[in-house]
Automatic annotation (TrEMBL):
SUPFAM superfamilies in the cross-refs: TorD-like
Keyword Ubl conjugation included in the entry's annotation: no
Recorded superkingdom: Bacteria
Name recorded for this polypeptide: Nitrate reductase delta chain
EC number per UniProt: 1.7.99.4
InterPro entries with a match to the protein in the record: DMSO/NO3_reduct_chaperone (IPR020945), NO3_reductase_chaperone_NarJ (IPR003765), TorD-like_sf (IPR036411)
A GO molecular function held by the record: metallochaperone activity
Keywords of this entry: Nitrate assimilation, Oxidoreductase
Any one Gene Ontology BP term: nitrate assimilation
Length: 177
């Protein structure tokens, strides 16, 4: 399986849980296709989480985790810039990078993690590094906050950071970990 495929799967799993969401057993079969044991085991642990609660509880957890906390927002530039004008500048630069890559971003801001992950699955390595550079610190921060909360979503961020490291290496002077 292509290493970039994991970004599509993560983008999907980091969206609001829906009734017609992927069947957990299908996801478990998907996880078995990954060569990396850590990726496979983390995805399987996340499937265990999905199977442990009814949809409404999964939805409540998602909202509480990502929508009600500035520390765990899926908008990766927010922790660094908040509402500062500099954030708008960086968002505009990201939009330009998406456009250069021929990607459409629709209604979402370009620092929205599922959108970033979809972009990474569709761009060349050099373009991916450019897209990652302004959001990488926010990605690491989000991971750290989810770990502190003992959130099951930390598993997905661990897969994300590991996959970024293996595909993109150093991001703006910081080695992806």
């Amino acid at each position: 399986m292509n290493k970039k495929d994991v970004f599509c799967l993560l983008a999907y799993l980091l969206q609001y849980p829906q009734a017609d969401w992927i069947d957990p057993e299908e996801l478990r079969r998907e996880a078995e296709n990954w060569e990396e044991g850590d990726t496979r085991s983390r995805l399987n642990l996340f499937v265990d989480y999905l199977q442990s609660a009814p949809l409404n509880v999964l939805q409540e957890n998602f909202v509480e985790t990502f929508d009600f906390s500035k520390k765990t927002t899926l908008y990766l530039l927010y922790p660094q810039y908040g509402e500062e004008p500099k954030r708008v500048e960086v968002l505009q630069e990201l939009i330009q990078e998406y456009q250069k890559a021929g990607l459409l971003i629709g209604q979402e801001l370009p620092d929205y993690l599922p959108l970033v992950l979809e972009a990474l699955s569709n761009v060349a390595i050099d373009r991916g590094r450019i897209i990652l550079k302004p959001v990488y610190a926010g990605l690491q921060y989000l991971h750290d906050q989810l770990v502190k909360m003992n959130s099951p979503y930390a598993l997905l961020l661990e897969v994300c950071l590991s996959s970024i490291h293996s595909l993109f290496g150093e991001i703006g002077g910081v080695t992806a970990t």
